[in-house]
């Protein structure tokens, strides 16, 4: 593997000094980029794109060609894991993801295998190694997975949900079945992320998109506990370098204190939390990643710069900040605004690292 | 007006002693009730139901006939105010609310009138007085309005939104236009709620459904500041009795401390915040209303009772708790489960009021 030319991202996650604040954007390889839409069209559909390592590599690199981003993130979907468990993932136009098999009973959970990543998800590992080769040390590559709770919501509801009625009924009425499902998912995610690390991922992020929809007690018991289990099961050093782990619960601002005690290296913040307050709360336990409202990218370059400055100054001087949006970049954003954002972070942050 | 037979709800909002914890459910007059669906069918459509005081009264009372609830809430829609400002509210099947006119520019905002409730929304006041008469002192009647920010999102987007791109672009690029719109909405809401109080509403709640989608700074400046202005403009005593004001920001758990300083009497909590922690945070400043996950009503009566007990014990002994769901009751809930919930609150809470 070639030497890493830009390691700001990894250093910031480990709260080491950097010259400027590193920045990447969740969903940076996405529909707002015309070149992404072109490749996706060529692939046929979204899952065909995920399953083709060459094309997945192509879209992963595309935003790096446009912007001086400090990290690349594997192009894939969080639902590859339940798909590999045999649920039959498919996408209906305008409907989002769906599963052919739905998990609702103890028998359904018993029948689920634990994922063997090398066997069942080799296309993801091929994408990781292809991307690492193509990056050639330019920036680090982030691997990722959905959190067990987030994956479970799709598996029990059968796809996206507005009300989470079936998965919450399982949680409250059959907590032991819910725990059995989350246990299988945790073991699968540990294997999945460790294989991504072995294939070349230099940091990993766990996306807990729906943890913020749980009550306080349910979040701790059914989402955070399993993310902690995963953190403790991960390879933390590879190729002679630490592999930082980032936890991101959308809507998790109320639980940062507990999240910081899981043993992870960094917490992703959505845009609702003041990052300075978050820093005071977590202290030296973890780095922070975030947290500009993705909607700011619908505003002018001047407004974007002003918001970037507000967040930088709220975090203040010193180590431990990776700049990002508080959620994925929206599909209708003008790519030039994303460029203004990335440039603003680098330009305006230098003074906080002197 | 007849003597109030059950004033638990009003007493709890003012942190006065009660025998058992009062309970009502957001959206308690709603589609989960077959009798509601029947009346709505008879009315023709949703807005026809809102605009017919006799039928609005009928659906307001329906849940009280089924359950021993401690409050009634005016049946209406939060978008009556922008409709009265001339935007032309309509509903498309399966699409949610829409406006014929959209507010996007300084000129659009300048052209908006401030609502004269007696003139423009007399059907709401007729509904309030009709319901008060029909309630005949059984329980107090709650009036309500959407928050200025929440109303503005619909007015600028032209209806419901997933990404709030236009209203957020206005907020970041034209903050003075946004403030002018929120100012007009605040004056309109003050008039609207004060007229509801004069017509018979015995408490009022401000629903800030979309405040939780703002960044920390934007929430304080564009949502909370205007709710505070409203609180300070309201009639706080009527018919010789205090008229409590409840603020409810969905997803507002991070901002409870600031919300408690607005001068309101109570804060509504969604289900993500631990109510005991919230109580420690707000101290004696305000009462708390909430906060069971509405999805618990998809589970068994035993699970419902267990969750009710968890919340009651987290709040602990003493005054200042109105039990509620953390958001509106879902349409697919079995009405029997709602009954189990209401009964559980009364039965299990007595021991906390000895």
If you had to describe this structure to a student in words, what would you say it looks like?
2 copies of one chain form a homodimer. With 354 residues, chain A is α/β, with parallel strands linked by helices. The first copy, chain A, has one domain (8-353): TIM Barrel, CATH 3.20.20. The first copy, chain A, is 48% helix and 13% strand. Chain A is built from 16 helices and 11 strands. Chain A has helices spanning 8-13, 34-43, 46-51, 53-66, 80-87, 106-110, 117-120, 122-135, 148-157, 165-173, 175-199, 216-233, 256-259, 275-282, 301-315, 335-349, and strands at 72-73, 89-92, 96-99, 141-146, 203-208, 237-238, 241-242, 245-249, 266-268, 287-292, 321-325. Chain A has a 7-stranded parallel sheet with strand order 1-4-5-8-9-10-11. In chain A, α4 (53-66) runs parallel beside α8, α14 (275-282) runs parallel beside α15 (301-315) and α15 (301-315) runs parallel beside α16 (335-349). Chain A is globular, with a radius of gyration of 19 Å. The relative contact order of chain A is 0.14. The mean pLDDT of chain A is 97. Chains A and B meet through α10, α12 and α15 of A and α10, α12 and α15 of B.
Topology:
The structure is a homodimer of 354-residue chains.
Chain A: H1 8-13, H2 34-43, H3 46-51, H4 53-66, E1 72-73, H5 80-87, E2 89-92, E3 96-99, H6 106-110, H7 117-120, H8 122-135, E4 141-146, H9 148-157, H10 165-173, H11 175-199, E5 203-208, H12 216-233, E6 237-238, E7 241-242, E8 245-249, H13 256-259, E9 266-268, H14 275-282, E10 287-292, H15 301-315, E11 321-325, H16 335-349
Parallel strand pairs in A: 1-4, 4-5, 5-8, 8-9, 9-10, 10-11
Antiparallel strand pairs in A: 2-3, 6-7
